[in-house]
Amino acid sequence: MTPLIHAEGLRKRYGDSCALEGFDLSVPAGTLCGLLGPNGAGKTTAVRVLSTLLRHDGGVARVAGFDVATEPAKVRSAIGVVGQQAAVDEILSGRQNLILFGRLHHLGRAEATRRADDLLERFGLAGTGAKPVSAYSGGMRRRLDLAASLLAAPRVLFLDEPTTGLDPRSRNEVWRAVRTLVGDGTTVLLTTQYLEEADQLADRISLVEHGRVIAEGTPAELKGSLGATRIELVLTDPDALGAAAALLARVTGAEPVTEELRVSAAAEPSMLTDVVRELAATELPFADVALRQPTLDEVFLELTGVAR
After folding, report:
1. Are 12 and 76 part of one and the same domain?
2. How far is 65 from 67, CA to CA, in rounded Å?
3. 286 phi/psi in degrees, rounded to 5
4. How far apart are the C-alpha atoms of 138 and 122, rounded to whole Å?
5. Residue 96, Cβ neighbours under 10 Å: how many?
6. Mean pLDDT, to the nearest integer, of 220-248?
7. CB-side exposure of 36: number of CA atoms within 13 Å?
8. 216 plus 234 within the same structural domain
9. For residues 66 and 230, what is the distance between their CA atoms, to the nearest angstrom?
């Protein structure tokens, strides 16, 4: 598929500090790409360059077919940007905010009002559109912020850590809204500190470190790069770790790994039944036994060496 976001060899320096150094990215139309990396890896700088908010020092970047350096106005006409803080006025109502944004996008009053009402309905805010934003929950404010970014019907949407500071319920509300956007054909570049968020939402993930992409793929591909599934035993008595490790080694034929009250070993999914059968014949004090896939947290740690 033709990429709507394309970057090749992007470079950006701040004095002696290098924020981007050979940054490459390709995001096909109608997909969501998650941009992950430790603090200071260059994620926000990349978004600022791609959204024309910052000029790069080298390399090439195109968004929606337009060069971000030589055609910034055309890029801006094709994109929406949602930053880390909601950019809405708390005194105005949700509906008034959207109408205001529509007018700033040079829409006529009637058209701005029509789109505002459509977006309030689309994001589940129709019943609260007349209330001041100061009365909104965090999740409602972020959904309103997303709605505001869509008033000009952008082909590409940049989301820079849109759920930072939200409680789990509010985060799920934003996730549902983002899934709807992608389902309707919007191309999204998402930066996030929540690996679960990227796992839930992203079609593909690019892992960034020291200003360049060091790994990319679907969430399943990245997790699969760490190897096989594992059978994990959670014990209630640390003195039983040795016996539990011996049991897993006997059934799976793999070298177990122990950590506090957990012991695990690489295994085929079909081996879980054998492990449960063996456990039933022992008196091992276990709390749980499960088949576990590698997580994005483990991929993050393996590739960056940075603790979460």
Report:
1. yes
2. 7
3. -110, 150
4. 18
5. 17
6. 87
7. 31
8. no
9. 46
